[in-house]
Here is the input.
Amino acid sequence: MFKLSVVSIFLFLCFSLKAYSQGQIFQVISSHPHDVKEFSPFVKTVRQEGRLWLVELKPNYPQHILKNLRPVNPAEVRHYQFANEKFSIASSTIQDYVARVDAHSIKEDVEMLANFKSRQAGSADNQKATAKLKEIFVSLGLEVKEFCYRAGACSLVADKKGESKSDEVIMLLGHFDSVGKNFAGADDNASGTAVLLEVARVLKDYGNKRTFRYFATNGEENGLLGAEHYARQLINSGEIKKVVLAINMDMVGYNSNGIVELETDSKYEDLAKWFSSLASSYTSLKTKITIGAWGSDHVPFINGGVPTLLTIEDWSTKTPCYHMECDKPSTLNYNYAAQIAKLNMAAMMTRDDQ
Ligand SMILES: [Zn+2]
Here is the structure.
């Protein structure tokens, strides 16, 4: 008996303690300051550019750091500056609509969201913010549904029904929860939520063929909970197939070099290049592309087989107040956030015309 249990314990340890061969490359998939502090002593950086951070493990690494590291084939991940040509003919209708984007109303909504003491998912203030966002979506004539992944923690899905191909969906999303620092979370991610509202506002009277869906996600900071929950619902019902494009916005307010990072997985790399053309055609933005998606609400939809992309501020110059109380509205560049709004609006309208 004794002998058997020692063998089974040994086998169990072999299976649970994943041993990686020397030279295995890992992608860092968390930027929480706490996580970075935890794994940094045990890894050697191989490459770090923008949102792509590749490392090797040092000997004697503790198993628990593996939760924030993803083994990758280096050929499958990359980061590069990319400036695609403008479209030969830019749409005057799109130019007309993107010209209506107002940086000031984005600023007002960032301030409104940062005025909630804490937007930590499930907190009383988070629920007040949910109610406020719902009120705004309803005032824009959108059809709003709540998706609660647990009691008191709900995401909002607001639809502007399409006129001719309403069963197909083009989705814009961003999380409104924060890590809970007092009166903060302006860049992460009141900025993305405010751009979501501004796009919905500007496109209020637009004649979209497909359904435009505005998804204000919750629980992102606790592990993409709202996005995972909703993606699973769509997968279980089969509706995920109807989502022809999804655009995530997370941290789109802190920037001074005019660069936006476009992140997705290799199977959607052409989508990122297409966004680069949109940026050249309708905005003043320059683009960088990261292949190897991680760390925000675009991941569940990429895994669900939806053509999905994250638009995020140039990560190499991201806010120094990441997940800190100093992440305040006064630190943001609202003209930059307005350019992100123009880019994603142009993407929704161009895709809808196809
Ligand atoms: Zn975020």
